[in-house]
Amino acid sequence: MGVFAQEQLPSFKLNRTNQLSADWLIYRPETNHFSLYIPEYHGQTGALYQWVDIRSEQPFPINFTAKKDLSLFIDNQLLFTADSAATYSLDLNQLFKTEKPGRHLLCIWHPTEQPDYNTFGNVSEIRVATPSAPLKNEVWDKARHYPNYNAFIIFLLLIGLLYGGLRTNYTSDFQSLFRVSNFFRYSALEEGLLAKPISSWSSILFVIAFSLSFALVIVAIHTNIQNIVIFNRLFAVSETDITSRILFYAFLIFSFILLKYLFLSLMGYIFDLTPLVSLQYREFIRTFLFMGIFLPLIMVLYLALNTVMPQMVLLVSNIAVSIILVVTALRIAYTLNKKVLLRNLHLFSYICATEIIPLIILLKLIVFNY
């Protein structure tokens, strides 16, 4: 990180108070000057700059979403490095001590990726005066930023209509999946929709309803912590577009459920356990779809309590997702154990390859990725 001479740089209007602006700069080494950063023109960059007016007598609170290893510099002095992907709130005045008010060069830098500069903003404060002491004992309430719930509500209503339509038009299939007595009956795997899963329009619609429900919860979890999940490194998914993220995750979940059978068929062939593939997949579908009907309740809890108890809602959501994944793996192992004893090391290795290892990967991606 080189030192830039201020007289070589264009002047920008400074804020009268300690604030960030929406205008970020990019350094042009060929001219040794800064220019206004335009994403469509400049493309991806690892470092962005901004002139900030720092006054020591005033706080300078900011918040932002950072990927791991993101660093903040002022006048080439390292102030902060993110140790994990999360949302951070900092007071630049506490980190950067200066006696003279004036402009300083703020730099956000990441070694491998472009910083998520759109998330950098000022922490607005609302002054609330008490009636008894209007000029004293003032309470400062930091404004919190919550996601737009409209998309969640619309998709939740869509899921409700989808389940309602399935219950009305495919009553026997609905009961075969969601009747509690059938869930604990081994013979139910040979009845109704489970006899030939993913072979009719009703089964496809049930999987779509589950995929949307699961996607809502996952997006809610990741939106709640403003985290950059690993899929965003592989696919271009906007952090601010809730709708596209819900559809994106729903497509991934739907594809995962359909491709699960191909994966099991391949592993069954490798381990010479092909006769178990159909039974394992039917148990997988039964457990996933049965437990998925409770996911809309988690979303109702999220919409009702996220603004007042976000940490509790995040914990409950993570626990719910973990329970679905863990219980599915355990029930599959239990069902296969009824047919072939798990004391067989060959079968145990097959269970590890098809259920335990994928379970660990899914928990890492969805729950423990921050």
Short description, anyone?
The protein has about 375 residues and is an alpha+beta fold. About 45% of the residues lie in helices and about 15% in strands.
Number of DSSP E strands: 11
In the predicted model, the low-confidence regions spanning at least 5 consecutive residues are: 1-15, 125-145, 225-240
Question: Spatial order of the strands in the main sheet?
Answer: 3-8-5-6
Largest sheet: 4 strands, antiparallel
Q: Report the β-strand fraction as a percent range.
A: 5-15%
Kindly report the average pLDDT value.
79
* Helix/strand order, N-terminal first: EEHEEEEEHEEEEHHHHHHHHH
Give the overall silhouette: elongated
Number of helices: 11
Number of structurally distinct domains: 2
Percent helix, as a range, is 40-55%
Going by helix content, strand content and strand pairing, the class is alpha+beta
Q: What's the multimeric state?
A: single chain
Radius of gyration: 26 Å
Terminal CA distance: 29 Å
